[in-house]
Amino acid sequence: MRKIAVILLPLLLLACIPIAAALLVMAVAGPAAGEQLRTVACGTGIPATGEWRPPFTQPYTVSRRGFGREFHPIHLRWEQHSGQDLVSQPGPGPVVAIGPGRVAFAGVSRNGYGNYVDVEHAGGVTSRYAHLARIDVRQGRPVTAGERLGVEGSTGTSTGNHLHLEILVAGVATDPVPWMLVHGAPLNGQAVTVGTTVTSAAAAGGIGAGDGAATGGAGDSVDTVMEGGIGFELPAPGNPRQASLRNPPLPIPAKVKALYQAAAARYAIPWTLLAGIGMEETGHGRTTATSSAGAQGLMQFLPATFAAVGVDGDRNGLVDIRNDADSITSAANYLVRSGVTDGPDGVAKALYAYNHASWYVNDVLHYAHAYGGGIVLGDPTGCDAPANNDGGGDPALPPLTSDRVRQLLQWAGSQTGDAYVMGANGPDAWDCSSLVQTAFARIGISMPRTAGAQRAWLAKGNGFRVQPGTERPGDLIFWDSYLGPSRIGHVMLVWDPATRTTIEARSRSLGVGHFSYAAGPSHHIFEIWRVGNMADQPTVTR
Fold first, then answer.
1. In the beta sheet, which residues pair with residue 79?
2. 324-337 and 271-282 helices cross at what angle (nearest 10)?
């Protein structure tokens, strides 16, 4: 152990990790050759949230034939390989642009590339896509990130279907794997969904844009923390419908509309969704008599349910089931707690929880769209823990090894001084969840993009919750922030438990750095999680 300490401590100190943290890191996980387990997938794919993205929409494998000196399978000699080979699963699949730009070339090569496309991006960057079976774009036309360029193939000097991806900076080939990683789009083999990117909280139903959108737990200031603004549109209504077939949407009284908007802003959901419930239940307060089932108030809560989710909407010190502000705000709280932000399916599940009928879900969505629809600020992958999970993850998981924790914190610490920009994916600007996502990508672990989805990913079987006071370096801390008191809105990495400090992307004014989490217990949500010794492609077993 003494010999290991001599080797690791200087490395940790070079990474600016305090001695207290360094000693704790070494105690994290025992032997360096601990067992790695395969990560548990979450949802159908990760959303593309920044300017850059992988060149496939479906899952893919990263070939061992990478950048550098490689043995050529046809020429049978060692040669310089100028890109990274990728293989879609199942293949051959469509190839898409990794970022916005202009098609500089689309045609056939004589030097072994076969059918290939070059896309010129800003900053002197060119991406090259070789061995295509078919080209679907014309030279000279602009393309957006994710736009189809062609189909993976085996044209040119090739032994089978694959994509040869090159990144050229000022005309010089660079290794695509680290380049894509630092640009927020790791080549980790995961499928990438299209998704809707929201770069401002203002798109989420009335939240003020910028740092002035503080609505969360105690300790939030005007300069609130924020993480990636990924969102998705409210799903369209389906069939069957019932009341909405015979009752058109009524005008909303100004006072009631203001309450819808205030509650929506507090919980970061579209106000039109609350209006849809209000229309379905009472015509926005026109008929608020107690129902035959005992439901009361504008949003028709059963007393037992209201006792569990009731909120003081007008902040008068009372929580009254018949108070319109309390009723509407409690409905927002109930929807969020029922998973309304967990993708389009989450919206349907939350409405079904409100009233167990498919026609009710479709009626509310019909009215919500009639009042303008909107975007739910959440993760479109629908990452949620399994129903039989108690919310604590899997405590039997082995924790990250000391070496992996060291790599994780060394990279995160090297970002100190970078800017905070909501929705940014690096390399010089981050929000809280993109910094965490990229830090773990550096050690071969892919996780979702938003803080809430990262916590759900852990509960799904990739980590386990630990009690305050037992945290270790590299653990993740989650609490509520601008998304309201019932939702996780911020994530940070534990740096040194002895001083209760983090490495995190804190806010626009503070950027990336080391901050205190001592005030964590004053938040409505305060959770600490430990990531298991997971890997997308496990290489070490015992």
1. 70
2. 120
Contact of 128 with 166, CB cutoff 8 Å: yes
Quote the CA–CA distance of 218 and 127 in Å, as a whole number: 47
Q: What pTM, to 2 d.p., does this model score? A: 0.68
Could you tell me if 532 and 399 are in contact, meaning their C-beta atoms sit under 8 angstroms apart? yes
DSSP string, 356-369: S-HHHHHHHHHHHH
Predicted confidence pLDDT, tens digits, the chain (542 residues): 222 333 333 333 333 344 344 434 434 444 344 678 888 876 656 666 567 889 998 888 887 667 877 776 766 777 788 899 999 988 788 999 999 999 999 999 878 899 999 999 988 999 999 999 999 999 999 988 888 999 999 998 888 899 999 999 999 999 888 888 878 788 888 877 654 444 333 333 332 222 223 333 333 333 445 555 567 889 999 999 999 999 999 999 999 999 999 999 998 899 999 999 999 999 999 998 999 889 999 999 999 999 999 999 999 999 999 999 999 999 999 999 898 988 888 899 999 999 999 999 999 999 999 999 998 887 766 666 554 445 688 999 999 999 999 999 999 999 999 999 887 777 788 899 989 988 998 888 888 888 988 998 999 899 999 999 999 999 999 999 878 888 888 999 999 999 999 999 999 999 999 999 999 999 999 999 999 999 887 765 54
Question: What is the token pair recorded at 495?
Answer: 């740096």
- Do residues 206 and 257 make contact, with C-beta atoms less than 8 angstroms apart? no
The closest alpha carbon to 152, from 226, 93, 86, 218, belongs to 93
Q: Give the C-alpha separation, 462 to 295, whole Å.
A: 40
According to DSSP, the β-strands at 429-430 and 419-420 are parallel
Q: What is the DSSP letter of 540?
A: -
Which residues lie closer than 8 Å to 318 by C-beta, 6 or more apart?
A: 312, 326
* CA neighbours closer than 13 Å in the CB half-sphere of residue 12: 24
